Amino acid sequence: MALLWLAVCLTSSVSGLLQTEEDPDSPIKNLRMEPGEKRLTWDLHGNVSEIMCFINSKFITKAINNNRYCQFQVLSSCEVKNFTVSLTKGPPFLMGIQYPLQEGNPGASAQRLDCWVHDMDFLTCSWEVGREAPSDIQYRLYRQHLWTRREQECPHYERDNRGKHVRCHFNDVPRLEKQLQILVRGTSQRATIPCSDRTVELSEIEKLNPPNITGTCNKSYSMMEWKVSSHFNRRYEYELQIQKGSDPAYTEKLQENFFALYNPGNYMARLKVKGFFRNTWSEWSAPQHFVCDVGEDVQRRDWLLSALGVLATLLVLGLAVVLCGRYSVLQKLFPPIPHMKDPTIDNLQSSKLVAWEASRASREDCPVAEVQVLGET
């Protein structure tokens, strides 16, 4: 035990010195991991001032609840790590375990697991087939809730040319927890395949799309605007690159989603964006070209087009007047032929018809004389 204390004292950091056999006088015994609770716990014997917990020789946290255990926020289910505990005061002490236990060939597990959020609603993960994977291997990806450990398999796989799953995406990012555990499990009839996992914070792995720049301008002033959409970020930083004519391009660092440019001339602009508290920038947007100083040649062309438009309008009006006048002259030279009257029909139509009432004698009755026909002559 004295030799162990001496070795720890000579080591500046907590290295891979793991106590494999418990000392009967050790203040900490039965060191173990409780995966469901994500904590490293032990049986405490005697009084100790403070206990520190390390993962792969890196200090993570101090023990809580009267030095009964160390609580972790994230605990890998696949990657084997060294968990160690040490005392801050008193005789040097170090004890450790490995978790999880190694099963299968690590070279057959999914390699280079990577995930990112894109186009607002999509979470995509990709990986590579392990170099030592058997030919019949197939991989499946799951998302796991950090505390309940509830899992859901990814529904949309992509395959490589050998038919192996190498990519998958979820399309319901707004419904997901902000922090997830991503696991890739391999299956084979020939061998046991270790899993691969990664804990992701969705806001940190989001790849923002570069915004499109819109704007209005004239010879003396230009106003550019843009809009960024995200489920996680509300504040952004921008880099706006501007190049006027053949001058060298320069960059403006902004936090607003607009920029005013005075005496702009003709220029090109492009933009990239990142979350205010993030480190990853988007790609540059497509260059937008703004023509704000039209120049004398363009002004002369526009004036000429306007003049031609006015002249064409006047010609149309003049032609209409000429045609109307010509029609009036023809009417005077060749008047229409008057309609010939039919004396019988016209007189009948123009006369007044009076209804005859036989029962009433009128004062205006004409005298009627009787005529006798004596015979034919």
Automatic annotation (TrEMBL):
InterPro entries: FN3_sf, Ig-like_fold, IL3Ra_N, Short_hematopoietin_rcpt_2_CS, TypeI_recpt_CBD
Pfam families assigned: IL3Ra_N (PF18611), IL6Ra-bind (PF09240)
Protein name: Interleukin-3 receptor subunit alpha
Description of how the protein assembles with itself and partners: Interacts with IL3. Heterodimer of an alpha and a beta subunit. The beta subunit is common to the IL3, IL5 and GM-CSF receptors.
N-terminal signal peptide: 1-16
Bilayer disposition of the protein: Single-pass type I membrane protein
Domain Type I cytokine receptor cytokine-binding: 113-205
SUPFAM superfamilies according to UniProt: Fibronectin type III
Species of provenance: Ursus maritimus (Polar bear)
GO cellular component: external side of plasma membrane
Residue stretches spanning the membrane: 303-324
Sample GO molecular function, one term: interleukin-3 receptor activity
Keywords tagged on the record: Cell membrane, Disulfide bond, Glycoprotein, Membrane, Receptor, Signal, Transmembrane, Transmembrane helix, Ubl conjugation
Functional note: Cell surface receptor for IL3 expressed on hematopoietic progenitor cells, monocytes and B-lymphocytes that controls the production and differentiation of hematopoietic progenitor cells into lineage-restricted cells. Ligand stimulation rapidly induces hetrodimerization with IL3RB, phosphorylation and enzyme activity of effector proteins such as JAK2 and PI3K that play a role in signaling cell proliferation and differentiation. Activation of JAK2 leads to STAT5-mediated transcriptional program.
Gene3D superfamilies in the record: 2.60.40.3850, Immunoglobulins
Compartments (UniProt record): Cell membrane
Family: Belongs to the type I cytokine receptor family. Type 5 subfamily.
Domain IL-3 receptor alpha chain N-terminal: 28-100
